[in-house]
């Protein structure tokens, strides 16, 4: 048989296989084939995650991991008293760490007594919170109870700008954007949102426009304030509000500078940046100055590790204006698919992230939200991905080690096989990729998250009022650490 015959025979086999696959796909169950609507071209994977995976030496074998889990299992986690308050002991299995949220709960308590006070939350996440999903529902729950109006801090550009309902934004195409996902040494330090933007075109206008959304408590843009960084050159910005134009100067003298657009509430405005190409621009903040405000710092493809690159001095400068009381780290979606169930490398990296948060925002409470359930095809059947539980346990390990609160999103949504139910039920609460929630599911998750946080707050109020009634004098604040569980680098 000559070469041509071999070629045509091979071609015929491939063609028949393709036809057979298309035919079988029509009759086999839908769930065998992932039908994610996500555009893979827009999916980013942060450089630190790729490096960590590449350098993963699997330093702990399976026996060591099993022994570590066995040592923690069932043992009591006893909390040190903080300001005269001590939450009941927990086990590793049911760990929530309300003890480490006491400073946040106290701020809520004071806000409840005085509605003019203010509480602020930074919610860092990945594609799970893209488009303000989940976060907007946490925000609404808090503002419903404690007051507050506004969506908080909003970046200049965003992949999810078109899909976000809590605020509408559009922008010119000539912005230069640097992200902590893929740039290690930015031209100027990253902002609190992990990005820095430059009005990159001297000859053409570089602009951004915002319009209030339709979500409850976000129907106006209150006290719109621009945040920008340090530069050796000055610039200008023209704010167009209706038929009026306000011309203002940018004086980039400090690490972080602010410029108020206008006092009071706006429905929409446009900002044209003029001769400002050297000035780092971070974004705008919208809040009414009292109640609870929640900033959504979501970024597709983020593992959480890039936060460790934040410039602590710049973050403290942001915090001088924004004054955070709780920082939420909600990651895991982009850490599941790397062929390993030993996440010690991720624990180590995220411990650096939490330490950077503590350095950057002194005294702030920290909450870790675990991976949700995710389903994968095994032998033509969708089941919970085998990496979900190991990752969730690793996240719980570093939350405990870092003295942070913890939300086990995997068990909160139902545990093993729950993502399949969320996808298959009518109406569905998750997408056909068996990974991401739709708007209905995101709202349910937001309510569940708020519910756990609020349960801790209600327990805190009981403990606090009991302390006050008994006249207990708060003991000096010690570094709280579980007494009955030794959490070391060797054990995790």
From TrEMBL:
Membrane-spanning parts: 6-24
InterPro entries: SGNH_hydro (IPR013830), SGNH_hydro_sf (IPR036514)
Record has Transmembrane helix as a keyword: yes
Keywords: Hydrolase, Membrane, Transmembrane, Transmembrane helix
Coiled coil start-end: none
GO molecular function: hydrolase activity
SGNH hydrolase-type esterase domain boundaries: 294-443
Region Disordered, residue ranges: 467-492
Gene3D superfamilies: 2.60.120.1360, SGNH hydrolase
Nucleotide-binding among keywords: no
Protein name stated in the entry: SGNH/GDSL hydrolase family protein
């Amino acid at each position: 048989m000559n070469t041509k015959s071999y070629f045509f025979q091979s071609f015929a086999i491939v063609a028949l296989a393709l036809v057979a696959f298309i035919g079988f796909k029509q009759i086999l169950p839908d769930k065998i084939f992932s039908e994610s609507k996500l555009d893979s071209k827009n999916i980013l994977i942060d450089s630190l995650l790729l490096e960590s995976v590449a350098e993963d030496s699997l330093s702990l074998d399976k026996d060591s991991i099993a022994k570590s889990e066995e040592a923690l299992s069932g043992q009591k986690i006893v909390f040190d008293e903080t300001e005269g308050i001590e939450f009941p002991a927990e086990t590793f299995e049911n760990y929530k760490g309300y003890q480490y949220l006491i400073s946040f709960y106290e701020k809520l308590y004071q806000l409840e007594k005085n509605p003019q006070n203010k509480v602020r939350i930074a919610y860092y996440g990945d594609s799970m919170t893209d488009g303000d999903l989940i976060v907007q529902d946490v925000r609404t729950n808090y503002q419903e109870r404690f007051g507050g109006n506004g969506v908080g801090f909003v970046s200049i550009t965003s992949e999810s700008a078109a899909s976000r309902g809590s605020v509408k934004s559009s922008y010119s195409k000539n912005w230069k954007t640097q992200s902590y996902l893929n740039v290690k040494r930015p031209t100027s330090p990253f902002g609190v949102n992990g990005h820095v933007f430059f009005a990159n075109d001297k000859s053409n206008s570089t602009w951004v426009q915002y319009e209030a959304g339709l979500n409850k408590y976000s129907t106006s843009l209150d006290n719109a304030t621009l945040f920008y960084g340090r530069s050796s050159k000055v610039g200008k910005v023209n704010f167009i509000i209706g038929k009026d134009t306000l011309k203002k100067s940018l004086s980039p003298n400090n690490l972080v500078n602010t410029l108020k657009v206008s006092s009071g509430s706006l429905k929409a405005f446009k900002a044209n940046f003029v001769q400002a190409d050297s000035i780092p621009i971070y974004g705008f903040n919208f809040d009414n100055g009292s109640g609870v405000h929640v900033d959504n710092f979501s970024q597709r493809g983020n593992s959480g590790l890039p936060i460790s690159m934040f410039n602590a001095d710049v973050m403290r400068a942001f915090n001088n204006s924004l004054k955070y009381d709780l920082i939420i780290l909600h990651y895991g979606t982009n850490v599941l698919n790397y062929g390993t169930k030993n996440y010690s490398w991720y624990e180590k990296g995220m411990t650096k992230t939490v330490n950077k948060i503590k350095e950057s925002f002194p005294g702030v409470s920290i909450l870790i939200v675990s991976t949700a359930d995710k389903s994968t095809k095994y032998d033509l059947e969708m089941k919970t991905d085998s990496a979900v539980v190991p990752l969730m346990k690793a996240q719980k390990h570093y939350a405990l080690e870092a003295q942070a609160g913890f939300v086990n999103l995997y068990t909160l949504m139902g545990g093993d096989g729950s993502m399949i139910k969320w996808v298959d039920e009518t109406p569905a609460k998750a997408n056909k990729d068996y990974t991401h929630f739709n708007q209905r599911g995101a709202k349910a998750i937001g309510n569940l998250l708020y519910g756990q946080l609020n349960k801790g707050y209600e327990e805190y109020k009981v403990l606090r009022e009991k302390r006050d009634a008994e006249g207990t004098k708060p003991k000096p604040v010690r570094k709280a650490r579980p007494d009955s569980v030794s959490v070391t680098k060797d054990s995790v």
